[in-house]
């Protein structure tokens, strides 16, 4: 039985490898096309349709295709199974529409939310979330149809055009603007205990005021949420009163300065996106950045524009207003005991709209689900030891919004 995405990745990247990456070539390609790499011509792929049972589709997605004999009816795929994955849904699956990049210079204009930029800088995500990269649709679809992750070697293998390429996790980090070593030291998403509704009361206004309605998400958590769902946690849901896993945990990590392994998250979610027949294809700009860095002689056109995101562009007064005089502390997910929330009376009811976050409840168009929950919370290796050592060491600073 093939391992699930969670067991493929769980703990592997966090542990990492001690081999000397700087002596390795940036990426390896296989093919004899001296005229550069052209993107796949989707009209040239045999027009056959395949119908998959979701469980079988998932199983084939995680197979080691490049270790098999080449038997594809199209030169754009290595195996017949990859061809069937493509013509069995990956060629027509919708793409995530709100994949955007963040305009940090726009946010820095507003004195009361400037600290948000520093928060993302502190956890090492600023460059990745501010990455602007247009993409080519055929490249993205072929990438997903052929993607293979070799976690023990920290490698990704895929095809672009008629050629096979290989890149390391370190290459991916460099392509999207992440610090590889910092990411290796960060916690995995499964190492963050799930926050319950009582843990996140401080994220919400307890009473209706000029700052927001009762039960409404405070400004800083709301801005983080809106940024995440348009970048690294793709989701079409805009209801901040029904936030699911892992948004609360990631919002808390950003606000507390907790190091989070965004590279592990991205690789896992690419696999989840591929294997979940109900998920739109996402992470297009990050995939394209990796392809361009690896291929080098790409001759195609990135004709789909990566739009920028300026939070609440038509609501400047929301960003310009002074913060609420009431301050709440950031939940401490790794603390041995809960951090008391300031200004929240003990008998204050939890807003009815707040859904206690859990992976099972997170069923939006994004795919943050099984890869980080099936493995449980046990772990091994340096990353896990760091996670256990740091438990209880979260920053307990307050915030206003």
Automatic annotation (TrEMBL):
Biased composition (Low complexity): 368-380
Biased composition (Pro residues): 346-359
Compositional bias of kind Basic and acidic residues: 18-29
Region (Disordered) residue spans: 1-39, 338-401
Protein name: Uncharacterized protein
Species this chain originates from: Sorghum bicolor (Sorghum)
Biological classification of the source: Eukaryota, Viridiplantae, Streptophyta, Embryophyta, Tracheophyta
